[in-house]
Design a protein that fits this description.
Helix 1 (3-19) crosses helix 2 (36-50) and helix 5 (120-128) packs across helix 7 (163-175). The strands form 3 sheets. Strands 1, 2, 3, 4, 6, 7, 8, 9, 12 and 14 form a 10-stranded mixed β-sheet that branches. Strands 5-10-11 form a 3-stranded mixed β-sheet. Strands 13-15 form a two-stranded parallel ribbon. With 346 residues, the chain is α/β, with parallel strands linked by helices. It is built from 14 helices and 15 strands. Strand 10 (231-233) and strand 11 (239-240) form a beta hairpin. 51% of the residues are buried.
Amino acid sequence: MTKLFVRTVAAVSLLGGLSGLAWAEDVTGAGASFPAPVYAKWADAYNKATGVRINYQSVGSGAGIKQIEAKTVDFGASDAPLKDDELEKAGLIQFPTVIGGVVPVVNIQGVGPGKLKLTGQVLGDIYLGKLTKWNDPAIKALNPGVNLPDAAIAAVRRADGSGTSFNFTNYLSKVNAEWKQKVGEGTAVNWPTGIGGKGNEGVSQYVQRLPNSIGYVEYAYAKQNKMAYTLLQNAAGNFVAPDDTTFKAAAANADWQKTFYQVLTGQPGKDSWPITAATFILMHKVQDKPAQGAATLKFFDWAYANGDKLAEELDYVPMPDNVKGMVHKLWASSLKDGSGSALAVK
């Protein structure tokens, strides 16, 4: 990650932490690193527009879920959506903010962005520890003409509970039978191989430092740091590049009317990116601090109305207007103060 970008996220977090002493309406959140780049942009723009500061801690989806359950933050964030019965049990709601993509990134001398092709089978075999060198015949067969070194593959994965890992391992479980049998899916799994980095930030930094490494990060991190992403074969058999077009193609299959629990990996369509994911906000249905709950809603209401361009600049896909409408209805029907009154957004 570039130093400038790290400072931007840190500055938003620091300002929010200090401001809580002075402004009652300032908002605290914690969780997924997947959307942290766009949340930092939104928070900065929102502060300039309203004076309200957003303190968002990029600590991973697992920690974000724990913090909102413990009521130590105003909102939690996760790329691993909770199922409807899990939400009901915990007294939570969830709603999507943006859609992005998890992308494999590599650090191989002479191999630039989009120059290496991988299938889900090969990617799973790398993380199973079955393919250990870049010039393995299985990788070479996909990449004729690419100068692949006779060098050991350094696999990098997440060390923390991660929605990015959930989507990555969910995808591998759909395309690699041995992965599904031996490892499976989850925010944290027993990795057969690899070095662990904390957050998308940590995985990005490891891959940038380690020659002949491979990792997986949200696309904004690859883009910000000019990392070499790979092409992936999708369910239609096409090798596609990660960008807002291929994320939109996969996201078109989501049935938001049915439930906000949507996992978008391995979607059909000739242009679909195979590891597309929505990211979600979690809030308690009954708000012990109604002013904080209302302030949280005002921020995300502002983001829905004003944040699409900022999201698109980082190649996230904004939520469609009809889905934003569903979210507004969810807020109105489900979020209450202690007396049972709805929270005011406007």
